[in-house]
Amino acid sequence: MGRIVTLDVSDLPAPEPLQRVLDALAELQRGDQLCMLHRHEPLLLYQYLDELDFSYRVEPKDDGPFEIWIWHTDRAAHNQTRAQ
Amino acid sequence: MNLRGLHLENMPTLWAPMRFFFTAPLFGVLGALILLFADVEVWQNRWSPAALGATHAFTLGFLTMIMTGALFQVLPVIIGIVLPMQRGLAILVHVLLTGGTLLLVVGLLKTNPALIGIGLLLLSAAFVSFLGSYFSCLSSSTGTATGSTIALAATSLAITVLLGLGLAALRAWPQYGAPFAGTTDIHLSWGFGGWLMLLIMGVSFQVIPMFHVTPKYPRWITHWIPATLFFALLCGAGAALAGHWSAAISHAIALLALAAYAVTTLWLLRQRKRKSRDATMRFWQLGLSTLLIVLLLFVVRHMAPTTWLGSLNMAIGVLAIGGVAMTIVIGMLQRIVPFLIWLNLLNASMRSGERMPLSNMHQLIPVKRAMMLFYLHALFLFSLLLTLLIPSTGRLAALLLLAEMIFLSTIIGRAVGQYAKFNRQLTAE
Fold first, then answer.
1. pTM metric for this prediction
2. Burial, B265: exposed, middle or buried (Cβ in 10 Å; 0-12, 13-18, 19+)?
């Protein structure tokens, strides 16, 4: 089980949230997960995650910031899923 | 927003919007020079050739130039519309808009039908190619408030252009008849209330919370105000052409819609979480406060004696263009230019696999310079108010505007110079 790294960017103006999360992802080890907290869905981020081979899951909250969970894509598992 | 389908290769190059941003202050300089060398009539008679020339240098050459350029970036990044052949289209629209505006402005100044005619032809081609491409892609737009508000703004631009074409043609060839009474006012209300304000609104729904860390706009503002304003303008124009009494009610609804937007945005800016010194926010506050004054002047105009109408129309026009639209657009440029450069550098660093060379957007436009520009603009606005009271002081306003436009050019030029330097580093490594 990897580490969970939390990054709260909900009070930062654009483009600081994107910059911070990309910096944090550069340090993220395989097996670790980054939990990003943001006041809205960071739509611009997703294309960079695809480009950098990260997977993500978004958990919207009614009463708080969005939680975006990001981790390194497991290529082998990904290819296996596609083959099925 | 739907950016899941957006890929880095679909993002327009920096030069798509930037060529428009570079050209706009040059038209600002042209407009300021017209005001500087015109006689005092330019401030007293909105039909004088110099007033018509300067007005179109500012509305088409400066404001529409920047807003069209910004749309080349906003459409793909914010509302998911990728225009076909966007790089070539940006060059084509830029050339046609620049050439057409230049010829129209000179033609209006000299009352030269040939120049006005060729100018109109080029401008028509610019707007047909841009709006045609945009409307053909409209089905791929996402159903957000910003997307639908921009669609209303683009429709307003089409209406403004059609009315403007008719008015300019009658100015060039008066033997074919005079415009309907009030057509100019309808052209102005669609240009300002429709095209300029609706586009500013649509973009602000995204950029105010994004850049200034404010709460989101209330849903009733984003979903109802743009449509209310658009239909009030539509009903008002129809009623005014028919000479129907209900035009006043439509105008009142349009004024209330704009006032609700201005007050809400000012309130949101007061709720912002980061209270640091920010020139863009000051521009927003100044522009929206001036908008409230312009709306008040509209109300006064409805009640004022007819002898005041000339002065009130001039005050409303001058403040709407110089005090509201130019203030907000110049302010937004202070954020949008560094943001676009940042985004392009980020993409370049991703392609090269190198670390992003820019640590802070303020490296591109330092806060001190942006604040200096704000104070210069506020001084220009103050001189505009003085000119409305004492028209003979108009040359001071023209000189301040000239200085501001030159300063704005150097700010954009410096930011692009920084981009070129960082981009060279990335491509060399």
1. 0.92
2. buried
